[in-house]
Model the fold of this input.
Amino acid sequence: MEVAVTKDNFEDEVTNSDVPVLLDFWADWCMPCKMVAPVLEELAGEYEGKIKIGKVDVDSQQELASKYNIVSIPTLLLMKDGDVVKQQVGAVPKPQIEDMIKAAL
Done:
């Protein structure tokens, strides 16, 4: 399951999550983001209950994008206990994203 993450629900969805959270910083107009989206949906299903996938729209959530120094999208941040443990910039293949997830489990 994917969750829309905003500054208002960030603490509940990310900081206080009992599973690692993979945050996808994206935007509607970003073509590479659209390429990564179906892969993330697949992974959300495959790792349901083990990891949460959050989507952060950089246009509407500029405060969060700024807080994590997001300068290029898509950027994936893997968060565990509220801390960034891994970061990946750009559209990458599914196995690479899956490696990030496995490292956090």
Observations:
- The chain has a mean pLDDT of 95.
- DSSP finds four helices and five strands in the chain.
- The longest strand covers residues 83-89.
